[in-house]
């Protein structure tokens, strides 16, 4: 292990560990924009500069490997001045409309400008990238907010492997682009939204949350994604009981902060008006069981052939105890009359591994059949 000192704290780090990694691991925050723990080192924002005792000039900490006996300072008057200068240059090419920006409250550029007391920029303001692209249903690309940190490019290449975007152009007018600046749908993008997840500003935003609330107004609810058995941790941003968007969390033990397309964008079923929220029993069975006084018979046209059937025409709601009693009774009668292979179980890919395990156990041991399938395979 290597022993070094950061801001007066004696720290031990493994060989090959960077000063940034060692500092963050011990609760020492170093300002950073282009750095992300899951991505390769870019070093283009220069905001993470630190002073090393015995070195003539400050250097960036994200690519600086720890050395034995190194003494590092992450805060000083000189470093604050450097960071103010860097942020001032970034803000000269960035709209200062935080009052109406959807990312206000979670924008990292805004956070660091506040920390160094920078209300504006001392340089002439000229936005080089005015392009606004709303060409897909998942996220919006607003290039005027882009600070060219390249996080989105790196996550698309290194984590997702889609290589859908890259830096195009040169100098002041460079920008993040698909091939020939075409629509995102025509690129190799898989719409996983990982680029949106790592974007530090409002350059990339979920389309579902545009104009629907400020970040500090949103409640955060962590749960497990219901789309497959991997068990990814997912966090929903909720306002007034409605989901605005989903994202991963760095603490997620399975997935970290990255999600697939279904996990990040496929949550609208939770608020679908067609979603069943209580058990239903078909009206003819309900009449036979004395749960309703209205007789009913199956119509000649199958409900499955009706484009938008009214569920209340064929079913009545019941409580869970009644539904479970009826289901258990009918299953037992069917098995006794026709044998266990007359029954089939269809599980859901939106259940957890544990729930599906119990379901197949019920079918195989409780009922005695191997007729088990699930919706994701059909």
Plain-language structure description:
With 378 residues, the chain is of the alpha+beta class. It has 4 domains: 2-75, Roll (Ubiquitin-like (UB roll)); 124-271, Alpha-Beta Plaits, CATH 3.30.70.20; 277-338, no CATH class; 341-378, no CATH class. It has helices spanning 19-25, 77-91, 108-115, 151-160, 194-198, 261-265, 283-288, 311-314, 320-338, 353-367, and strands spanning 2-6, 9-13, 49-52, 59-60, 71-73, 132-133, 139-142, 166-168, 175-177, 204-206, 219-224, 233-239, 242-247, 280-282, 315-317, 345-347, 372-374. The chain has a 5-stranded mixed sheet with strand order 2-1-5-3-4, with helices on both faces. A 3-stranded antiparallel sheet has the order 6-7-10. Strands 11-12-13 form a 3-stranded antiparallel sheet. Strand 11 and strand 12 form a beta hairpin. The two termini are 53 Å apart.
Write the layout of secondary structure elements.
Blueprint: E1 2-6, E2 9-13, H1 19-25, E3 49-52, E4 59-60, E5 71-73, H2 77-91, H3 108-115, E6 132-133, E7 139-142, H4 151-160, E8 166-168, E9 175-177, H5 194-198, E10 204-206, E11 219-224, E12 233-239, E13 242-247, H6 261-265, E14 280-282, H7 283-288, H8 311-314, E15 315-317, H9 320-338, E16 345-347, H10 353-367, E17 372-374
Parallel strand pairs: 1-5, 16-17
Antiparallel strand pairs: 1-2, 3-4, 3-5, 6-7, 7-10, 8-9, 11-12, 12-13, 14-15
């Amino acid at each position: 292990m290597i022993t070094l000192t950061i801001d007066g704290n004696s720290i031990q780090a493994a060989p090959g560990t960077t000063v940034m990694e060692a500092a963050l691991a011990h609760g020492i925050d170093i300002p950073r924009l282009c750095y992300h723990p899951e991505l390769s080192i870019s070093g283009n924002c220069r905001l993470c500069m630190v002073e090393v005792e015995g070195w003539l000039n400050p250097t960036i900490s994200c690519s600086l490997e720890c050395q034995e006996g190194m003494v590092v300072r992450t805060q000083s008057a000189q470093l604050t001045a450097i960071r103010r200068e860097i942020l001032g240059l970034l803000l000269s090419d960035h709209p200062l409309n935080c009052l109406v920006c959807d990312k206000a409250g979670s924008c990292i550029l805004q956070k660091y400008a506040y920390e160094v007391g920078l209300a504006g920029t001392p340089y002439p303001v000229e936005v080089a990238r005015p392009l606004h692209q709303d060409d897909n249903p998942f996220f919006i690309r607003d290039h005027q907010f882009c600070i060219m940190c390249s996080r989105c490019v790196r996550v698309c290449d290194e984590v997702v492997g889609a290589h859908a975007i890259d830096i195009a152009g040169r100098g002041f007018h460079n920008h993040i682009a698909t091939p020939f600046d075409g629509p995102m749908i025509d690129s190799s993008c898989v719409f996983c939204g990982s680029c949106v997840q790592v974007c530090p500003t409002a350059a990339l935003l979920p389309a579902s949350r545009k104009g629907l609330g400020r970040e500090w107004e949103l409640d955060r609810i962590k749960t497990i994604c219901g789309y497959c058995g991997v068990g990814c941790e997912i966090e929903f941003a909720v306002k007034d009981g409605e989901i605005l968007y989903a994202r991963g969390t760095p603490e997620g033990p399975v997935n970290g902060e990255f999600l697939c397309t279904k996990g990040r964008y496929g949550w609208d079923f939770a608020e679908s008006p067609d979603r069943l929220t209580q058990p239903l029993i078909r009206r003819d069975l309900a009449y036979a069981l004395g749960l309703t006084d209205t007789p009913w018979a199956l119509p000649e046209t199958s409900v499955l052939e009706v484009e938008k059937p009214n569920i209340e025409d064929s079913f009545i709601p019941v409580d869970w105890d009644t539904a479970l009693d009826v289901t258990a009774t009918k299953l037992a009668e069917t098995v006794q009359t026709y044998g266990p292979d007359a029954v089939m179980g269809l599980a859901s890919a939106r259940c957890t591994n544990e729930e599906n395990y119990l379901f197949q156990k019920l079918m195989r041991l409780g009922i005695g059949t191997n007729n088990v399938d699930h919706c994701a395979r059909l």
